Amino acid sequence: MTRRDVLALAGSLPAVLSSTAASAQPSTGRRMGGTPTAFLAHVRAAREGGSPFDIVEHCHSMGLAGVQTNPPSLEPEAIRKFRDRLEAYKMHLVTDPRLPRNAGEIAAFEAQVKAHKEAGAVAFHAALTGRRYDEFAAFEPWKEMFLDRQNQVQLAEPVLRKYKVPLGLENHKGYRSAEQAAWLKRLGSEWVGVCLDFGNNLSLCEDPLDTARTLAPYTVYAHIKDMAMEEYEDGFLLSEVPFGEGVVDLPQIIAMLRKKDPNMIFNLEMITRDPLKIPVFTPKYWATFDDAYSPLPGRDLAKILDLVHKHKPKQPLPRTAGLSAAQQLKLEDELNQKCASYAHEHLGL
């Protein structure tokens, strides 16, 4: 199951939410919620057991302040019950409505937006891309994809403006931060911004602080994570690790985003999996970069390789290969709990 599959699956997970960002804030003052991809082992275990994973109850049991998931349906009664449960827990909600791919899908998109807002969504999320260096072996197909995604968002924008709920486009390894910022500047909509993923753009040879500086002005909310790297023959391995064990300057990025919005929402995305291979020494990795349209300067590559070389992981990178389902579940719980405890004790989340 890919990450995009799980984000789609989130629409079928039972969940709950709050009506406004203010009412969503729990009594503990915590602002960190959870994303579906932080609980992949739980999703798999629940599916194999024949019942859906209740991400709301799981996040609530961890003391998290919110959740990224979709209502169980668009029916008014289901929406009401969904909202009531999240309001009782004082949890915020971010949802993943499916963006229209053409004009014929705008009405269906609006129906989702209307229902999700009634359910209490304070923001929407969209990933839209996979890993460009894995999916594309040439520049033109990547460019076509990028233009198509821009068209999707252009179709969605009037609906977002009508219902006044912001959409956060995740920096999801499909385009570099300067490209995403330039796109949003051209669009010029207060209802389309960024879901800032703290670590994704390391795969595109960007320092996390540089990514944050570029995208912070547009950020609606964030996927918080720490990342560690190590060398391998074709480039470097990249992995989510417990907060405080990686190369991401969490306090500085959090401060940057809180300066932009004191009520910024941070959703945990500690993905428990094998490290990703970032093959920067292979021709295919560079196939989608063009010096004029989508540049990746050599100095950025050098900066990341220096980071890999000088910041060895404090612990072995997490791996799930060879683990039983029960062992994967145990590892996932341990890593998520480490992140939640660190966030509460050191990050004010």
Lay out the secondary structure.
Layout: H1 3-9, H2 21-24, E1 32-34, H3 40-48, H4 55-61, E2 66-68, H5 76-89, E3 92-95, H6 106-119, E4 123-126, H7 132-135, H8 139-163, E5 167-170, H9 177-187, E6 192-197, H10 208-215, E7 219-224, E8 226-232, E9 235-241, H11 250-260, E10 266-268, E11 276-278, H12 283-286, H13 298-310, H14 325-346
Parallel strand pairs: 1-10, 2-3, 3-4, 4-5, 5-6, 6-7, 7-10
Antiparallel strand pairs: 8-9, 9-11
Helix pairs in contact: 3-14, 5-6, 6-8, 9-10, 10-11
Provide structural commentary:
By secondary structure, the chain is α/β, with parallel strands linked by helices. The protein is 44% helix and 14% strand. The chain contains 14 helices and eleven strands. It has helices spanning 3-9, 21-24, 40-48, 55-61, 76-89, 106-119, 132-135, 139-163, 177-187, 208-215, 250-260, 283-286, 298-310, 325-346, and strands at residues 32-34, 66-68, 92-95, 123-126, 167-170, 192-197, 219-224, 226-232, 235-241, 266-268, 276-278. An eight-stranded parallel sheet has the order 1-10-7-6-5-4-3-2. Strands 8-9-11 form a three-stranded antiparallel sheet, covered by helices on one side. The chain is globular and about 55 Å long.
> How widely separated are the two ends?
30 Å
User: Whole-number average pLDDT?
Assistant: 92
Question: Structural class, from helix and strand content?
Answer: alpha/beta
Q: Main β-sheet, in a few words?
A: 8 strands, parallel
Give the helix level as a range of percent.
40-55%
Poorly predicted runs: 1-29
Output the radius of gyration: 19 Å
Shape: globular
Number of helices: 14
Secondary structure: number of strands: 11
Strand content: 5-15%
- Biggest sheet strand line-up: 1-10-7-6-5-4-3-2
Order of helices and strands: HHEHHEHEHEHHEHEHEEEHEEHHH
